[in-house]
Amino acid sequence: MTSSRGRSARNRAGRLFVLGLTAALGCGGQTTGTSASSTSSSSSSSSSGGDRACTEIGCADGATVAFSFREPGRYEVTVDLDGATVTCRTSLPLPKDGSDGCDSQDVLLTRSGSMLPVDQQSVGPLTVKRTTAKTLGVTVTRDGEVLASKTFAPIPWVTRPGPNGPGCEPATCVQASLTL
């Protein structure tokens, strides 16, 4: 006759075995050639003949224009992308509702610290998502006074292999790092 304490210990051991097996196999219930901590979005054959997982890691494609301004005032950032103008507006102190921004989704103006004291808030950098642009002009004004202006032509795009390796998307990442 088995005691209830013995059955309980066997049940716990069985549950732990199933949990361990589930963790080893991953959520999809199949083994892959990568570690159990990888997030799988699709599979492809590797050169060794087995399946391997592709993660969901993507690229931050685009050009980053480095700058940072911290003085209080009304800022306007004018971006010229191959002759098309995008305007971004914000002010320091930053609005708490995040209502300022750019008039195109191709451009993102970083505004940091809206919930921090004014002396810890900043405007910049700028990200341009359009990786086909040939020229990029950036002008930053505060209260109508030009603080910085520069044209990048041609944009020094760099194409690198994607973060997940061969046979996985994204196959390549296209980026540029610029300083205003």
Summarize the helices and strands and which ones pair or pack.
Layout: H1 4-25, E1 42-45, E2 51-54, E3 62-66, E4 73-81, E5 84-92, E6 101-102, E7 107-112, E8 122-128, E9 136-142, E10 145-152, E11 158-161, E12 172-179
Parallel strand pairs: 3-12
Antiparallel strand pairs: 1-2, 3-8, 4-5, 4-9, 5-6, 7-8, 9-10, 11-12
Q: Summarize this, please?
A:
The protein has 180 residues and is mainly beta.
Number of DSSP helical runs: 1
DSSP strand content: 35-45%
What's the Cα radius of gyration? 26 Å
What's the average pLDDT? 78
Low-confidence stretches: 2-49
Which sequence of strands runs across the widest sheet?
A: 7-8-3-12-11
What is the string of helix and strand elements? HEEEEEEEEEEEE
Principal-axis shape: globular
Helix % is 10-25%
Q: Largest sheet, described in full?
A: 5 strands, mixed
Structurally, the number of domains stands at 2
Distance between the termini: 81 Å
Number of strands: 12
